[in-house]
Design brief:
Layout lengths: L1 H20 L1 H10 L13 H8 L2 H10 L5 H18 L7 H19 L5 H17 L9 H16 L12 H19 L1
Length: 193
């Protein structure tokens, strides 16, 4: 489930930013493919996300209705699909570093051009996932999601309890960086005792 959550959350962050910049195009696309939001904020489910990112015809259709400068969004959706494939495949793709690196590079273009935030999930994909794959030489295909899910739940609960939570849309602000740094120092101080 965690592997699915990483792609779902990344997709929803990307889709929300795309919708902010190109509302007519995204609404037309969503209606045309029967995409229905579910859950908090109308986010899409993992099933809907996989149905979009793993279907090249649907991605090409989205690319066709967006202005040319928005094609980076579709490139990132393809990148999410590629990362998902790397993580869930039984055998580690020898090009995993460039696949993940290309995705992160494209996400940074979205940050620069469209103000999308670098969420915790994107940070994990670009940094910690690479470390795990390098160190183990294996994908997460046979791994349990429970330890990661528990850690994520605890950090999220800590953020909420202590007022550190920041919306994805405000992730790029200087204040967000200070708050995240303060949260990490606060959280780590509990583990140093």
């Amino acid at each position: 489930r965690q592997r699915q959550m990483c792609i779902r959350d990344s997709f929803n962050t990307l889709w929300n930013t795309l919708s902010d910049h190109f509302p007519t195009e995204t609404e037309t696309y969503a209606l045309g493919f029967g995409m229905k939001g579910a859950g908090k904020g109308g986010d899409f489910s993992g099933i809907t996300v996989k149905d979009i990112i793993h279907d090249e015809m649907k991605l090409a259709h989205l690319e066709g209705i967006l202005p040319e400068n928005a094609n980076i969004f579709v490139d990132c959706l393809r990148g999410i699909a590629n990362v998902h494939k790397v993580v869930t495949s039984p055998i580690l793709d020898p090009d995993f570093e460039s696949i993940i690196g290309n995705f992160v590079t494209k996400w940074k273009v979205l940050e620069d051009c469209f103000g999308i935030g670098c969420t915790l999930k994107i940070h994990i994909i670009g940094t910690h996932l690479l470390d795990v794959l390098r160190e183990t030489g294996k994908t997460l295909h046979d791994e349990s999601d429970e330890p990661v899910e528990q850690a994520h739940y605890r950090v999220k609960a800590f953020e909420e309890t202590h007022g550190y939570q920041i919306s994805d849309r405000k992730m790029m602000t200087p204040n967000a960086g200070r708050r995240q740094q303060g949260m990490m120092e606060h959280l780590n101080s509990y583990h140093l005792k």
